[in-house]
Write a structure and sequence with these properties.
111 residues; mainly alpha; Cytochrome Bc1 Complex, Chain D, domain 2; 0% strand; binds heme C
Amino acid sequence: MIHILTRTGWQLALALALVAPALAMSPAEQRGRSFARTNCAKCHSIDRFTESPLKIAPPFRTLHEHYPIETLAEALAEGISTGHPTMPQFQLEPDQINDFLAFLKSLEKRR
Ligand code: HEC
């Protein structure tokens, strides 16, 4: 019996260690990240260290170096268009924008 409990304890600890990085993100950040992963990640790097798959697309972690992230909110609501033909136009709902900006901020603060 004790043996079984100990094993379960280890499995629990291991499971927690595996999900901990995801838990460190707020729900909004996680929603923003899954949005980015679905819609943006095939061109933009959405993490803290990789190159963008499409070299000319700026990694999301660098956006805040060019302008305050908040200024993107308006562009996202009205439909972001960078004038670059390879980037599709996006138009987001206010909730999606909040989530997405929360995610971008999470890239900023933990650099
Ligand atoms: C098909 C490839 C592609 C996808 C998908 C894509 N982008 Fe881009 N994005 C680009 C490229 C290329 C540029 C650089 C455009 C330029 O320099 O003119 C860019 C630039 C940007 C910029 C910088 C604009 C500026 O003026 O500084 C932002 C912000 C951006 N993308 C947001 C997004 C978001 C948000 C998504 C997902 C919802 C997304 N992109 C999806 C290709 C893409």
